Structure formats: structure tokens, C-alpha cells
């Protein structure tokens, strides 16, 4: 059921103010830590950490390097979210009350993920990114079920959460594939191509599940689809060039990207008509 509250109908409390300030400061620390740890501010890039386990050519499911530019958009959205939620008039916003701590938790987990990779713990990074994905899924459920309140706050929240969840969904699959390769399990006896196509089909199915569940909230499911399509597209491009070529995986990735892009548009349009 969608919460019907559409306005801030109660004054902010001291707990709200503490939350706002903590999320603002915590977001700043998490974003700076992530930038330093990822090599954006100097130091070792993530692609070179852990013996290159997460590089663009480590596995057939690794997105090509340009895919990771989406992080600049996600971090910008998180920074704007942190600022908007801290505005005095947003203190009692019911949506922000419901998700702000979770969003901060996701940012801290992302910084922890980078620390795990820089510490050469690919297995640890998988554990962290799965928890991160679960946290983002909780936020997704909340923003779908709670009606929009203030226009700016609601749209910033939806767009940012959507892009974040969509990208992390693809990154979790790539990260897991990297761990299996490092652990010597790799293709699970299926062969690299077959295994990769199965995982890409699962990604397409996941994108449809997101679209169906959030069909009445296009502001969040369309960004999810865009981010997933972006990541899947770059997996496909990566398999058409460079040292790790695989036409079958490339085709499957492009098809999955198309599904991810179109699914939320179709479900949102259908929901509006009904």
C-alpha cells in the first residue's frame, strides 16, 4: 500500500535536526573517503587493486572502463540529497525521515567496499556489496510505498536512489563473477560463455522485477532501468573489443540492456492507463 501523506504535517523535532546534521556530515565524509579510496584523488584505482580482479577485462561480465563514469552522477545526486534533506523546512518530511539513515548507511557501505578492494579482499567486497544492495532495496521499497512530499526532495531522492540501485545491481553481478574467478570456481562448470549468458538473463529478469514493483513510481524505476542498461551496455561493448572478446556474451548483454531500458517505461505507461 502506498502511504497517502503528501505534505509535511508535523513540526520538526530535535531528533530530526540531529538526523539532518548527521546525514549531511556523514555523507560528506563518505563521499570524500570514497573519492580518495577509488583513486579519483590520487592513489591506486580500484581497477588495479586486488590484482586487477575488478578490471574491465577480468571476467566476461566486467563492464568496460567508461561505465564507471556513472559514479560521478551518483555521487553528485548523493551530495545534493544530503544538502536538500538538511534544509530546515525538510526536517519533518516523512519520506526523508524514512530513508535518510538508510541512504547514509549505503554511502558508508560503499566506502567500506572500496576499503575491502584496496585491502585485496575480493571476498570481503562481495559481502559488502551484497549488503549494500540489500540496503538500497529497502530504500527502493520505501520510496515506492511512500507518496511524494516536497517536489524537489522527492525527485532528488527518487532519481538518486534509482541510479544508485540500478548500477549496484549490475556491479554486484560483476563483483560476484570476479570473486568466483579469483576463488578458482569461475564458470561453475558451465563454461564462461554459458555462465555469463545465464547471469545476464538474471540481470534482465531483475530489471523487470524492479519495473513491475515500482510501476507507479516512474521517477525511481526509470533511473533504475537507465543505470542497469548503462552497465549492461558496457559489458557488451567490452566483449566486442579488447582482449576478452565474446560475441555471444556481447549480444546477451545488449539484449539485457534493452530489456532494462524498456521495462520501466512499459510498466509505468501501463500503470498510468489503468
From TrEMBL:
In the UniProt record, which is one GO cellular component term? membrane
Query: What is its subcellular localisation?
Result: Membrane
Instruction: Say which species the protein is native to.
Output: Cellulomonas shaoxiangyii
Highest rank taxon of the organism: Bacteria
Write the lineage as a comma-separated list. Answer: Bacteria, Bacillati, Actinomycetota, Actinomycetes, Micrococcales
| Topology term for the membrane | Multi-pass membrane protein
What InterPro entries does the entry give?
A: TspO/MBR-related_sf, TspO_MBR
Q: Where is the signal peptide?
A: none
Acyltransferase among keywords: no
Indicate what this protein is called per its UniProt record.
Tryptophan-rich sensory protein
- What Pfam families does UniProt report for this protein, alphabetically? TspO_MBR
Q: Which residues cross the membrane?
A: 21-41, 68-87, 99-116, 122-141, 161-186, 192-213, 220-237, 249-271
Q: Which family does it belong to?
A: Belongs to the TspO/BZRP family.
The keyword Ribonucleoprotein appears for this protein = no
Task: Tell me the keywords, alphabetical order.
Answer: Membrane, Transmembrane, Transmembrane helix
Amino acid at each position: 500500500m502506498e502511504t497517502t501523506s503528501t505534505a509535511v504535517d508535523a513540526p520538526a523535532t530535535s531528533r530530526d535536526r540531529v538526523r539532518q546534521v548527521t546525514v549531511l556530515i556523514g555523507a560528506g565524509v563518505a563521499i570524500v573517503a570514497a573519492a580518495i579510496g577509488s583513486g579519483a584523488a590520487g592513489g591506486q584505482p580500484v581497477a588495479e587493486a586486488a590484482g586487477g580482479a575488478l578490471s574491465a577485462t577480468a571476467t566476461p561480465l566486467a563492464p568496460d572502463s567508461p561505465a564507471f563514469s556513472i559514479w560521478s552522477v551518483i555521487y553528485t545526486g548523493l551530495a545534493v540529497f544530503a544538502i536538500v534533506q538538511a534544509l530546515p523546512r525538510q526536517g519533518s518530511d516523512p519520506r526523508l525521515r524514512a530513508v535518510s539513515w538508510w541512504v547514509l548507511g549505503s554511502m558508508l557501505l560503499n566506502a567500506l567496499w572500496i576499503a575491502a578492494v584496496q585491502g585485496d579482499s575480493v571476498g570481503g567486497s562481495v559481502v559488502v556489496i551484497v549488503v549494500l544492495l540489500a540496503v538500497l532495496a529497502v530504500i527502493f521499497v520505501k520510496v515506492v510505498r511512500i507518496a511524494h512530499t516536497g517536489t524537489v526532495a522527492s525527485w532528488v531522492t527518487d532519481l538518486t536512489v534509482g541510479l544508485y540501485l540500478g548500477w549496484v545491481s549490475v556491479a554486484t553481478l560483476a563483483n560476484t563473477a570476479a570473486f568466483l574467478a579469483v576463488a578458482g570456481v569461475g564458470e561453475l562448470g558451465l563454461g564462461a560463455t554459458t555462465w555469463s549468458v545465464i547471469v545476464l538473463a538474471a540481470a534482465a529478469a531483475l530489471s523487470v522485477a524492479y519495473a513491475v514493483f515500482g510501476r507507479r513510481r516512474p521517477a525511481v524505476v526509470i533511473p533504475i532501468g537507465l543505470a542497469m542498461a548503462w552497465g549492461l551496455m558496457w559489458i557488451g561493448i567490452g566483449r566486442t573489443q579488447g582482449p576478452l572478446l565474446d560475441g555471444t556474451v556481447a549480444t546477451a548483454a545488449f539484449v539485457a540492456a534493452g530489456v532494462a531500458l524498456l521495462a520501466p517505461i512499459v510498466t509505468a505507461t501501463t500503470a498510468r492507463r489503468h
